[in-house]
Amino acid sequence: MLKSKKYLVTAGPTQEAIDPVRYISNHSTGKMGYAIAAELARRGAQVILVSGPVCLPTPTGVRRIDVVSAEEMYQACVELWPQMDGAVMCAAVADYTPVSVSDVKAKKSAADLTLTLKPTRDIAAELGRTKRTDQLLVGFALETDNEKVNALSKLTRKNLDFIVLNSLRDAGAGFGGDTNKITIFSRPTDPAATSLKTEFPLETKQQAAAHIINTLSAFLK
Ligand code: C5P
User: 109 lies in a domain?
Assistant: First the structure.
């Protein structure tokens, strides 16, 4: 069913430059997104992986496009989206970026330094806004509190078909490690029904990726 379908996957962090030497980023290692790209390719999909800076090998059969900033990731994804059958938005995109980037390394001084940041553009929300009925869009929510409320709000606000929640409150979930504990909230096709919740045990990121792709495949039936 996934054979010859085209899927976009985003993974890893973004880096927002302050000057030629320094940047703002986060702890994402890209492992979950790379596992998803690998699983999609293993099941026969044509996968384009738009990746922030990570230290991981490109999964077999996957075409990888490297980007650095949130704006570069936005441009790459928006351009690819019309040719895709779906997308899994796994990247930990920076929410803010410096308003101005210095051309030269900022010098140290004894005074406090204030950085002015502006919001980045939301890639998943833009793909959700332009999503066709034949396209599927999957998002992630990494939360530290109010997990279910936040995940459900992102599910509807970004017009996703389902969202994968991981909580930093769960041991073994989140950044860096090889395991994750996910809960999937799906938007039922029946608008009268409430969202569907499926909770999985702590498992490897490969197992979690398989569950996510099983859920995605169920939408294609
Ligand atoms: O950052 P947030 O919790 O809103 O992220 C939820 C989902 O939206 C994730 O799937 C993430 O990859 C995506 N996202 C994005 N572009 C952003 C922020 C988040 O695609 N600028």
Answer: no
Q: Which residues are catalytic?
A: 26
| Residue 110 counted as domain residue | no
Task: Indicate whether residue 73 lines ligand 1 (CB < 6 A).
Answer: no
Residue 74 within a domain: yes
pLDDT bucket at 110, cuts 50 / 70 / 90: very high
| Cα-based distances in Å from 219 to 20, 22, 45, 132, 192 | 45, 43, 15, 14, 18
Find out whether the beta carbon of 124 lies less than 6 Å from any atom of ligand 1: yes
Atom of ligand 1 nearest to the CA of 121: 21
Residue with tokens 């930093």: 168
In this prediction the pTM is 0.95
**What's the CATH number where 31 sits?**
3.40.50.10300
Per the structure, the complete domain to which residue 170 belongs is given by: 6-95+117-219
* Distance, CA of 67 to CA of 193 (rounded, Å): 39
Distance between Cα 123 and ligand 1 center (Å): 7
> pLDDT tens-digit profile of 158-178?
999 999 999 888 888 878 789
Does residue 190 register a pLDDT over 60?
A: no
Cβ atoms of residues 72 and 52 within 8 Å: no
Q: Is the CB of 139 under 6 A from ligand 1?
A: yes
Total domain count, the chain: 1
Domain annotation covers residue 106? no
Say yes or no: CB of residue 154 within 6 Å of ligand 1. Answer: yes
Calculate how far, in angstroms, residue 114's C-alpha sits from the geometric centre of ligand 1.
Answer: 26
Classify residue 38 by its DSSP letter.
H
